[in-house]
């Protein structure tokens, strides 16, 4: 066991690097990325633990997206059925978009005319059940089909870094590259603009994804974009 | 175990490769080496070289293998044709299907399968170079790859073998000892609880020798566990 993880096991430090099976000394309620055994709390993933407002969480470094009701996401059509679309949202299972949640008047069997395989949408997760199936909806707020542009994928855990403090990072990318960007909570990011602008923004996003846990990232990205 | 040799496998408490009976070969682990897999690991254990890659959780195919209340782990152990002296015919054979099966069973004990109903977690272990103890090396590498993929699990499982050579119980057999020794006992445990998730025995051991071999393999697993933790710490712990 390394020095660092040894410290984590013994200290009541609120933030530290933990591995699966590490004991988290806490009196807080269990949040995500943990499991309980014999009344004690252990980490279940590789990540950083934090003990905030009465809950102890472990934020995983990597991992698939877990849908949560109300999340705004970018989804890509993977399959069409007679009255539904199966949408790839980067989680374990494809999500369902039912025609009644699309806002369009879809004749039975004519789904592909509205949304073909590969088309992207800006949607909201509106139902998740215990069996792990989930549905998304286009009938909320600003949800819509995303015409043109491309979708790039980053780790869902890197999304806060992509947005930055008060949106500083994403504002910088938008302004410097002159692109329109929609960031889904699932790590799918839609970029629209001129060809070279898109690839510039894409490069920046890939850098953020790769170095999500390093410091001074906004400055680094600004420098990268000025080149 | 079957082979015969005039070689003296252990002399004055020192083995052919210069190790003491209770010493592991050198182990090097690197996490996150492959870009395309959700999680990956490269492991060198003596002359063994193993890659492990993890995908998932994802929809389980074929669908009749799905479990309504939990995920399944589909592990696959394969040896490259060039991993052994005589070219090995590629693909699954009797031996590798057995190892794949027992590895799946071992991982299902630690991965929190109940969090992903109907899903599948695919673990692929590729032996690039074999020098005895590849099933243990593969399981160890795959554990690190599972953690690297961010899959929730209760603990990582280290696997390590012990055996008997010239009537002496030794840890971590090398190729000569494996071929000409008297027994081989691969073991995988959950370090936090001490539970055994994989145990096989090839050869003959007396009850006392079995106890000794179990203790030795368990301590080997614990040493290995530290190396696994350090590997993940090195890949991700330094940041932030």
Automatic annotation (TrEMBL), chain A:
Residues 146-210 form the K Homology domain. One of its GO terms (cellular component) is exosome (RNase complex). Gene3D superfamilies: 2.40.50.100, K Homology domain, type 1, Nucleic acid-binding proteins. SUPFAM superfamilies: Eukaryotic type KH-domain (KH-domain type I), Nucleic acid-binding proteins, Ribosomal L27 protein-like. Residues 1-20 are annotated as: Disordered. CDD domains: KH-I_Rrp4_prokar. PANTHER family: EXOSOME COMPLEX COMPONENT RRP4, PNAS-3 RELATED. This is K Homology domain-containing protein.
Automatic annotation (TrEMBL), chain B:
Keywords: Cytoplasm, Exonuclease, Exosome, Hydrolase, Nuclease. Gene3D superfamilies: GHMP Kinase, N-terminal domain. GO terms for molecular function: RNA binding; RNA exonuclease activity, producing 5'-phosphomonoesters. One of its GO terms (biological process) is nuclear-transcribed mRNA catabolic process. Pfam families: RNase_PH (PF01138), RNase_PH_C (PF03725). Transmembrane segments: none annotated. Component of the archaeal exosome complex. Forms a hexameric ring-like arrangement composed of 3 Rrp41-Rrp42 heterodimers. The hexameric ring associates with a trimer of Rrp4 and/or Csl4 subunits. Belongs to the RNase PH family. This is Exosome complex exonuclease Rrp41. It comes from Marine Group III euryarchaeote CG-Epi3.
């Amino acid at each position: 066991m390394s020095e660092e993880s040894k410290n984590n096991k013994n200290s009541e430090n609120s933030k530290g690097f933990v591995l699966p099976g590490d004991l988290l000394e806490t009196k807080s309620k269990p949040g995500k990325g943990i499991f309980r055994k014999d009344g004690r709390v252990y980490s279940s993933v590789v990540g950083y633990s934090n003990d905030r407002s009465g809950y102890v969480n472990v934020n995983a470094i990597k991992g698939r997206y877990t849908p949560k009701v109300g999340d705004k996401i970018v989804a890509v059509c993977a399959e069409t059925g007679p009255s539904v679309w199966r949408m790839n949202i980067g989680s374990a299972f494809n999500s369902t978009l039912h025609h009644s949640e699309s806002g369009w008047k879809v004749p039975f069997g004519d789904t592909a005319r509205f949304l073909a395989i590969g088309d992207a949408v800006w949607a909201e997760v509106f139902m998740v059940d215990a069996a792990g199936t989930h549905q998304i909806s286009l009938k909320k707020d600003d949800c819509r089909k995303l015409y043109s542009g491309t979708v790039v994928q980053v780790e869902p855990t890197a999304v806060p870094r992509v947005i930055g403090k008060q949106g500083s990072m994403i504002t910088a990318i938008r302004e410097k590259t002159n692109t329109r960007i929609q960031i889904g909570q699932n790590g799918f990011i839609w970029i629209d603009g001129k060809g070279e602008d898109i690839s510039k923004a894409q490069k920046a996003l890939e850098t953020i994804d790769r170095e999500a846990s390093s410091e001074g990232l906004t400055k680094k990205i600004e420098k990268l974009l000025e080149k | 175990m079957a082979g015969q040799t005039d070689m003296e496998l252990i002399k004055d408490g020192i083995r052919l490769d210069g190790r003491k009976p209770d010493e592991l070969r050198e182990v090097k682990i690197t996490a996150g080496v492959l870009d395309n897999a959700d999680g990956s690991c490269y492991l060198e254990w003596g002359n063994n070289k193993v890659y492990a890659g993890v995908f998932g959780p994802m929809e389980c195919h074929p669908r009749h293998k799905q479990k309504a209340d939990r995920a399944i782990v589909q592990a696959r152990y394969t040896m490259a044709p060039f991993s052994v002296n005589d070219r090995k015919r590629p693909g699954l054979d009797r031996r590798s299907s057995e190892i794949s099966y027992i590895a799946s069973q071992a991982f299902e004990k630690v991965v929190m399968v109940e969090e992903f109903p109907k899903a599948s977690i695919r673990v692929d272990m590729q032996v690039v170079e074999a020098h005895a103890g590849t099933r243990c090396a593969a399981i160890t590498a795959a554990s690190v790859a599972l953690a690297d993929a961010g899959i929730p699990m209760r603990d990582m499982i280290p696997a390590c073998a012990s055996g008997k050579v010239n009537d002496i119980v030794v840890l971590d057999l090398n190729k000569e000892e494996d071929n000409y020794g008297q027994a081989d006992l691969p073991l995988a445990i959950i370090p936090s609880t001490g539970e055994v998730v994989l145990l096989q025995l090839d050869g003959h051991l007396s009850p006392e020798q079995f106890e000794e071999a179990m203790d030795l393999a368990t301590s080997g697993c614990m040493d290995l566990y530290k190396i696994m933790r350090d590997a993940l710490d090195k890949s991700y712990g330094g940041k932030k």
